[in-house]
Write a structure and sequence with these properties.
It is a single chain. The chain has eight helices and nine strands. The chain is an alpha+beta fold. A hairpin with a 3-residue loop joins strand 8 and strand 9.
Length: about 280
């Protein structure tokens, strides 16, 4: 790892096992290390998708949402679109049949333009009004997660910030603020599924997910359910997913079934620019 850090653009590397950090490396000072310390916030990019799923698991366990098979049919913002009345599990697995309207890989920002700059309400009215669902198949895109985090906010209402604090402050016990862009906003669907966290706080989040899974908590049962309900990607190893995201399956906003890790349950976060967390 030290050798790689000296020649590659890796900012931070942490390896945690059996209650302790076994490898803890920064980019050397002569490369990028002079710009970093343990308080530096690392932006999530698409790793925020997995965090959104973890927040959803808590919303289900707290009784705000019925479960992964609940239908999203009570949210006026998406009523006249292909997303209306679909099950949450299909949102979680990126299999809502929206591939005719959005292609994250073909042109980078998708056919419908920069949805990330718009509220869900605006995106629905401009690009999805009267849209029709196609065959359910894996179609990785950021709009789905944007819909999910805003639906969580819709269902939790005034308790939304309270739920975030219960997860990240009380449970994960983050040391620094995590600067979520999925806090605040109005009823138009303006939240975004991104956050910035220090390297150790990222590790704390990953460890909390592992602890939930291993201890079979309510959220742990949710994690086991999304693993069981994962779907094949059927990408054939092409397109532009980074190699560490080119897994065989996708489940509940996590990358799963890593090549070379047969018969192991691994939940993977992946984000643009090389962000990766693998939880075994």
């Amino acid at each position: 790892v030290k050798k790689q850090m000296k020649t590659k653009g890796i900012l931070s590397y942490l390896y945690y096992q059996d209650g302790e950090v076994l490898i803890d490396e920064f980019s050397p000072k002569e490369r990028l290390g002079e710009f970093l310390n343990n308080e530096t916030k690392f932006f999530s990019m698409s790793m925020g998708k997995s965090i959104t799923s973890y927040v959803l698991g808590h919303a289900i366990c707290e009784g705000y949402i019925d479960g992964v098979d609940a239908r999203v049919n009570d949210w006026p913002i998406i009523k006249d679109s292909l997303y209306h009345d679909q099950k949450l599990i299909d949102f979680l697995n990126m299999s809502t049949g929206d591939q005719k309207y959005i292609d994250e890989f073909k042109d980078g920002t998708s056919k419908l333009g920069a949805y990330e700059d718009n509220s869900i309400s605006r995106t629905m009215s401009i690009s999805f009004k009267g849209s029709v669902k196609s065959k359910s198949t894996y179609n990785y895109n950021g709009l789905i997660t944007q819909i999910l985090i805003n639906y969580i906010k819709y269902k939790t209402g005034d308790d939304y910030e309270k739920l975030l604090n219960e997860i990240f402050v009380d449970k994960v016990k983050i040391k620094y603020s995590i600067l979520p862009t999925f806090s605040g906003g109005s009823g138009q669907g303006k939240l975004h599924p991104n956050l910035s966290a220090s390297r150790y706080d990222w590790l704390r989040i990953a460890k909390a997910i592992m602890d939930d899974y291993q201890n079979d908590t309510c959220v742990g049962k949710y994690l086991k359910e999304i693993h069981k309900r994962r779907i094949p990607k059927n990408y054939g190893g092409h397109k532009t997913e980074p190699k560490f995201n080119r897994t065989k399956s996708y489940g509940g906003q996590f990358h799963m079934d890593y090549p070379g890790l047969k018969d192991r349950v691994v939940f993977g976060f992946g984000g643009y620019g090389g962000n990766a967390i693998l939880i075994d």
